[in-house]
Specification:
The structure is a homodimer of 418-residue chains. The first copy, chain A, is α/β, with parallel strands linked by helices and 418 residues long. Chain A has helices at residues 3-22, 26-42, 44-60, 65-71, 75-90, 129-140, 154-170, 187-192, 208-217, 240-252, 268-284, 293-298, 327-337, 350-359, 376-379, and strands at 98-103, 109-116, 119-124, 144-148, 178-180, 201-205, 230-234, 261-267, 288-291, 303-304, 318-324, 342-346, 364-369, 387-388, 396-397, 404-415. Chain A folds into two domains: 3-223 and 398-410, Aldehyde Dehydrogenase, Chain A, domain 1 (3-Layer(aba) Sandwich); 230-378, Aldehyde Dehydrogenase, Chain A, domain 2 (3-Layer(aba) Sandwich). In chain A, 44% of the residues lie in helices and 20% in strands. In chain A, the strands form four sheets. A seven-stranded parallel beta sheet of chain A has the order 10-9-11-8-7-12-13. A four-stranded parallel beta sheet of chain A has the order 5-4-3-6, sandwiched between helices. In chain A, helix 14 links the parallel strand 12 and strand 13 (364-369). Strand 16 (404-415) of chain A pairs parallel with strand 13 of chain B, so a sheet runs across the interface.
Chain lengths: 418, 418
């Protein structure tokens, strides 16, 4: 069977699964999610044995320690996958929710009803927990999922999918609802991206190269974020103690995440009072600093920042520091170098806080809080399937609601078009 | 200058226009729209003179009478364009609207704020009024627009754009906010579709061929509808007088529109009582009928429908008629042959009405009302830029809200990620 036929066949199964799942009641979906959680824990030996094959092959191939770690399953990580599914089961079901209804002069009622999107393709890299997380969220929102994980995690992903599909069968849900592309051939991705009649949305999760490949080749709508080049701006009217805590948290608490700060912008009116102690604290925490000329004049021994550094997502303990003239220069810097992900201002000045909030065009804009809080759980949305920096359909953390769309419903008693 | 440089230059102007426009207050945007409306009327002679060139060339080229009619401007059509802009000015401004705000356990407030999408590309065919309609809606929603109209309307479109841009200048708004691709070369479209960093959304308006070309070649998200294959299902518990009025309206009131009925489905329990008089009324109105075998047994002299007819959007006085066993068969028929546009059930049975409403996966689903009512004005959204049959971002009529997106805003007092 050629790749096109194979992938089309898989996507058709998912489409059938989607039709059945769109009608499933919340109770059945929740029972299934809880059953999946139980089964993952009960069958952990089977999962660990399959995972060992992937880990062994990865080490043989000489993959980095970090990659091997991301690939590795253990009892604790299996418990976390199970817990994730239980949490999704506890969230309210968005499907069928009527988000508004109004009456028109001719007497008909017009409203919007949340419905599943249909079939969602998830293309991801090595972490096997994405298999369970993504399948759980899509299931709860009434969508079938077609999963294409990294080839290095193939055995682990297949084992997880086997457990999840057994739960679907057990609960009389269509197995096509969780469909897995079980070939390591990358051609499968290209074929998936052409199936705009069978797949409704593609979400790539992984490095920038994967995301670019998907975006450039897809005929299907894509939701993604390329990178997080996030800023904190310390305004002249900032509480400098609060500013130091927010900047330190945004950079150091978990530097490898997309919502960590990459560039700190400081109003020149407070640079002298703020920078020396702040930068010392960063250095004590092991942060490598790159400063603009004005920063260097106050804190001389660090490296000078180059313009291209302002575009970089370090995902590491490295920080650009720039002194700016005012909030306008800060906003202009973010517009030019930022990635529309997460940006914050620290200030006690109401007018500048509101200007920053309105004018900075990012998925989440913060006043007096850390950019690290851009997260579905922190925002109270429940679990998330990723953070979108797109401007279509969803911006910021994508939870269950973002995995649905709204159709119009009309209740009439004989209304006609005049 | 090569095409790529030319289009990139244009899109960069639009991007600059978008940045400026995102901050414009409603008052200024409304004043500009009203000024545009006045100027279009005041400068109608200039518009008509330019339009004459297009109309002359179209006749020379032997374009069909219908196409020449769509292309032609007159005082009445210019007044309608102006009226459209006045109506947009009167609509509430979606930009800056906070659609929800809630407090988290750590004390921070999290909310969603509507913001413009940015730069919207509109690719359309011959009707010159789209130029003013699309520019007006995009402007009100704070978006810059980059317009690419049909080559046969080039002079008319350029004249309209000149008037609109003069109003922008007059009101101190950035002229890039309305950017026009003034070359008839189709290569310009291909270059536009690659500019994913400069254009945020593309909306094609025109025939299926244009829309397919755009979708297959775009790296930018696209909102569209291919076609409207719409159904009315007459249930066994329908009020047959109401059913006849709704079906007649859905087919005959304006058959050339996307929300007109193409296939009428009738429950076999009422087929004998309903069909003969209904079909006679259709024939008297000049509708050519294509019936399934059961329909033919009740009304023998009409053509037999072929399976491929069920997929067709006639946009004409032609109708497929099919007798089905029950609501399940009707829903299955719509899922298979429909285009997810507008579908209706006529029934007095509450349970089947609710099942149809939930299970039919179309942009608008109607109970006891005509599919012809799927329209932004009819639904109370104000003007619309088109009807989406996509499932991402917007389904159904796209008004001002659909030309915005929502970003997250967070108001804190020092919150950190633990």
């Amino acid at each position: 069977m050629d790749m096109k036929t194979y992938v089309t066949e898989k996507a058709s199964q998912a489409r059938e699964g989607a039709r059945a799942l769109a009608r499933a009641l919340s109770g059945r979906k929740n029972d299934t999610l809880l059953d999946m959680a139980r089964s993952l824990k009960k069958r952990s030996k089977e999962l660990l044995a399959e995972n060992k094959k992937d880990v062994y092959a990865a080490k043989e191939k000489g993959l980095s320690k970090a990659l091997v770690d991301r690939l590795t399953l253990n009892e604790k990580r299996i418990d976390e996958m199970a817990k994730g599914l239980e949490e999704v089961a506890a969230l309210p079901d968005p499907v069928g929710q009527i988000t508004g209804m109004w009456r028109r002069p001719n007497g008909m009622s017009v409203g919007r009803m949340r419905v599943p999107i249909g079939v969602i393709g998830i293309i991801y890299e090595s972490r096997p927990n994405v298999t369970a997380d993504a399948a759980g969220l899509c299931l709860k929102a009434g969508n079938a999922v077609i999963l294409r994980g990294g080839s290095e995690a193939l055995h682990s992903n297949m084992a997880i999918v086997r457990v999840l599909r057994d739960s679907l069968k057990q609960n009389a849900l269509h197995e096509g609802a969780i469909t897995f592309i079980d070939t390591p051939d990358r051609g499968a991705i290209m074929e998936m991206l052409k199936l705009e009649g069978l797949i409704d949305l593609v979400i790539p999760r992984g490095g920038e190269a994967l995301i670019r490949t998907v975006t450039e080749n897809s005929r299907i709508p894509v939701l993604k974020h390329y990178k997080g080049v996030c800023h904190v701006f310390v305004d002249r009217d900032a509480d400098l103690i609060m500013a130091e805590e927010i900047c330190f948290n945004a950079k150091v608490q978990r530097p490898g995440t997309c919502n960590a700060m990459e560039t700190m912008l400081v109003d020149e009116a407070v640079a002298e009072g703020f920078l020396p102690s702040m930068l010392k604290r960063f250095e004590n925490a092991g942060v490598a600093l790159r400063g603009c000329p004005k920063t260097l004049s106050l804190y001389p021994h660090i490296t000078e920042v180059k313009e291209e550094d302002y575009y970089r997502e370090y995902l590491d303990l490295i920080l650009n520091v720039k002194v700016v003239g005012d909030v306008d220069e800060a906003i202009a810097h973010i517009a030019k170098y930022g990635s529309a992900h997460s940006d914050a201002i620290v200030t006690m000045n109401h007018e500048r806080a509101m200007r920053f909030l309105r004018e900075v065009d990012s998925s989440a804009v913060f006043v007096n809080a850390s950019t690290r809080l851009n997260d579905g759980f922190q925002f109270g949305l429940g679990a998330e399937i990723g953070i979108s920096t797109d401007k279509i359909h969803a911006r910021g953390p994508m939870g269950l609601e973002e995995l649905t769309c709204e159709k119009f419903i009309v209740l009439g008693d004989g209304q006609l078009r005049e």
